Amino acid sequence: MKKLNELFDCEYDILIKGIKINSKEVEKGDLFVCTKGITADRHDYIDDAIERGASAVVVSRDVGEKKVPVIKVPDTNKELPNLCRRFYDYPEKKLYMISVGGTDGKTSTSTIIQTLLGSDVCGYIGTNGRSCSKFNRDTNNTTPDSDKLYMYLNEFVEAGCKYVAMETSSEAYFRHRLDDITYGSGVITNITSEHLNIHKTFENYLDCKCQQFRQIDKDGYSIFNADDKHYEEVRKEAVSSHKLTYGRKKDCDLWIKDFHISPSKTNVTFVYDKKEYNFDSPLLGEFNVYNLAGAMLTVLTLGKTMEEIIPNVSKINISGRLDVLPNIGQNFTVVVDYAHTPNGIENLLKFVHTLNINRSIVVIGQAGERDYLKRPIVGKTVCDNASYAIFCYEDPRSEDPKDIIDMMVKDITDKDKYEVVIDRSQAIKRAIDIAKENDIVLILGKGNETYQKLKNEVIYFNDEEEAMKHLKSRMEREKVSV
After folding, report:
1. Residue 129 burial by Cβ neighbours in a 10 Å radius (0-12, 13-18, 19+)
2. Is 90 exceeded by the pLDDT of residue 460?
């Protein structure tokens, strides 16, 4: 907590307990900052924030007299991160910040880094929330807004963490949430087209992906996937003195020499510093070999050795990624996975079909008010690589779910390869009901998320829980019919 006159050059010695940009989250004693978004101007919610207990407000335009002090700044969006840094005593400077960027694999790579370092010393922020050995809590965004981000970083400082592995999204750079953070290390997984609803062009998207390497300390480490087709474009943007690579090329700093995937594990052979290491990983799929390599190389830059970190590989568990549901008597497999981009979906399905399975049945949708250009690509990618698809809603927001699905299926020529069941719960039920021996049902797009955004409301919804409910129902029906 700080007084208002400690945060701004003003006469008010009011005690500030927290900083908020969402009026609905304001509690008594908070400072409300009126930032401007694409669809919302928080200046319009000042009265609501005051009614909820805001002690003062920060604005960038005239709002008239209010019952609480009003601090005017040139740009509230630019002021917010600096304000939060002051309020929480610059927590980012007390931690070794590790940026994890890329289109796919950010969550996996960040989680692997945390596991290899140990959650007692390394915090994680990303799609799966924020966590360390002391706590595991939710977040609203992959990379939170500044009012949340610096609060979370302060939580890690208070928990005794030394490092933070953070997923850094292109949207976060686009919205300048991370402008004031300097990273000690940064690793990128891959780059394919995504979020063009925000960036408009792939060139803009790529530029935002490159931004993390412009914010790495000059004595820090920039770590690249040398096999990614945009490797050279990204590398030239790096300002750090240390530039390292991982990949299948022999001259990479960490060379992925070989790997063998089985249904339960992946045996990998990495070469680092001219020494060969062979070990088993619980992560499946070629894409996870790359995620593991990028994470291991990142940890190695922190002074750790292969001998120190390899024993921790067996501890890796990534929630929402290839989560296999318990077998309760069924003769097929049900998997929940977060894959939602064309590249991620294709990689996952190609891996699945290397296993000894009969059919792959995919349940999937696409988010409303997001990259609509991606929808037909996702639909076609699913039907090109899966045996059968069931299209449904996924966070439709204000859009009509049917319109979203119509876009997803418009380029699919084989109409026998899919069906539409708009309600997601019923789509999951349908997939489980039609599954036969040795089939695999893949419920994609949401992972372990616990919500659905429908029109103007957010409801509780979890793919794993819905799948288990319908799986138990099918098993009960089959017992009765025997």
Report:
1. middle
2. yes
Mapping DSSP to helix (H, G, I), strand (E, B) and coil, where does residue 245 land? strand
Phi, psi of 29 (to 5 degrees): 95, 0
**Which stretch, 51-55, 77-81, 350-354, has highest mean pLDDT?**
51-55
Nearest to 440 by CA among 344, 326, 359: 359
33 and 45 in contact (C-beta within 8 Å)? no
313: Cβ contacts below 8 Å, ≥ 6 apart: 116, 279, 280, 281, 282, 292
H helix or E strand, kind and range, residue 335: strand 333-337
CATH of 91-313, one of 3.40.50.1100, 3.40.1190.10, 3.40.50.300, 3.40.50.2300: 3.40.1190.10
Q: Give the CATH number of domain 323-481.
A: 3.90.190.20
Lowest mean pLDDT segment, chosen from 60-74, 190-204, 206-220, 409-423: 190-204
Domain boundaries, the chain: 2-74, 91-313, 323-481
Contact 79, 145 (CB under 8 A): no
CATH number 3.40.30.10 given to 2-74? no
Cβ-contact 277, 269 below 8 angstroms = yes
Q: 466: which 2 tokens?
A: 């819905």
Residue pair 156/192 in contact (Cβ under 8 Å)? The answer is no
What phi and psi, each to the nearest 5 degrees, are found at residue 148? -85, -45
Strand 216-225 versus strand 135-137 pairing type? unpaired
Can you tell me whether residue 19 is helix, strand or coil? strand
Give the pLDDT confidence score for residue 198 in this predicted structure: 65
Q: Cα separation of 318 and 323, whole Å?
A: 8
Q: What is the dihedral of CA 290, 295, 298, 304, to 10 degrees?
A: -120
**95: nearest Cα among 52, 50, 157, 42:** 157
